[in-house]
Amino acid sequence: MTLHPVIMAGGSGTRFWPLSRKARPKQFLPLASKNPLITDTAIRLKGLASVKDTLIVCGPLHAKQAAKLVKGLPKKNLLVEPVARNTAPAIALAAVQVAAKDPQGILVVLPSDHHVADVAGFKKTIAEAAQVAAKGHLVTLGIKPHRPETGYGYIQVGDGLEGGGRQVKAFREKPDTETAKRYVESGEYLWNAGIFVFRADVILEAFARHMPEMQKGLDALRKAAGKRTFASVLKRVFPKLPSISIDYGVMEKASNIAVLPGDFGWSDVGSFAAIPEVRPADEHGNVISGAEAVVVDCKGCVVLAEKRPLTVVGLTDMVVVDSGDAVLVVPKDKSQDVRKVVEALKARKREKYL
Fold it and tell me: What class of enzyme is it (predicted)?
């Protein structure tokens, strides 16, 4: 049983402006360690899967950078989407490539911009998920919640399945605070981490059953897989595929779903406010990055300085970021609103800073 990691690197990461830009989105930033998030994603697979069996799916603007940051990735394993069409077509593209050489190969679909603290625990969970997937299940990983988080979707978990995993009763959208509290207190819910494990042939069969509008395009890609004509077929077919997530397109419709609970220090690093989850803080709760950052009499702050001196004095629970050509100052509890800055810059046509 061969594992084929599929690293999804198509995101834009607007909540990390001014560090993230069009050409350097979140997955290329060293937010959780000295490495970019995408590099850490590939490194944690060592011993579980080979880099020669790893695929990266991304857009043309980021292809060269993605390939550079994952050492040893074969050139043919870089799958470049002609246009962004959400996760269902991206995963289908990877599944077509894997199925062409290994129909029962196991895809391990991973976001490129998440953090895992317990790598050994992560590998153990993925190995268990692969065993369940080998039996024909579409497996999703659910994270045991440790707070009533409103920024994640939830998975309602049912009884255990023969051969491993648990039933999925329902997928739930991001809840309000009271609903999130109820979910956590019930013990029936897990955070939806966006990590999936399934056989190539099984997920392609699921696409055929639940997304028949995509079948004509996938048939064309499957016929061209491994041939010189594949790039031209991809360019012609891919933009016509429906733009929809794997959750909506398949996972919420299929009956052969299994969920595996995981507890391995996962974070989606969703905003600057999440940085203290993945990086050590000082005795005052400040996370400080960059030799040019000077913090005086501050508590609970995130201070990131890339290129020039940045001095912060007397602040509490603030985010202060200097990228060298732009500065962001925002309360930690408003850090999700950074994307509004990007929208405002677009409206003002300040392309230089996007």
Answer: transferase
| DSSP state, residue 114 | -
> What are the residues facing 311 on neighbouring strands?
294
Is the CB of residue 136 less than 8 Å from the CB of residue 256? yes
Each residue of 155-204: pLDDT tens digit? 999 999 887 899 999 999 999 999 999 999 999 999 999 999 999 999 99
Q: Give CA angle at 217 (106, 233), nearest 5°.
A: 95
Cβ(173)–Cβ(94) under 8 Å? no
Q: Tens digits of per-residue pLDDT, 248-282?
A: 999 999 999 999 999 999 999 999 999 999 999 99
314's CB contacts (< 8 A; 6+ apart) are 296, 297, 298
Residue of 271, 25, 301 lying closest to 151 (CA atoms): 271
pTM, whole model, 2 decimals?
0.94
Mapped onto helix, strand or coil, the DSSP state of residue 69 is: helix
User: What does the pLDDT look like over 56-92, one tens digit per residue?
Assistant: 999 999 999 999 999 999 999 999 999 999 999 999 9
DSSP annotation string for 291-321: TTEEEES-BS-EEEESSS-EEEES-BSEEEE
How far, in Å, CA of 96 to CA of 222, rounded?
6
Tokens of 57: 């799916």
The fourth-level CATH superfamily of domain 3-267 is Spore Coat Polysaccharide Biosynthesis Protein SpsA; Chain A (3.90.550.10)
Domain boundaries, the chain: 3-267, 272-353
Q: Alpha-carbon distance 11 to 23, whole Å?
A: 11
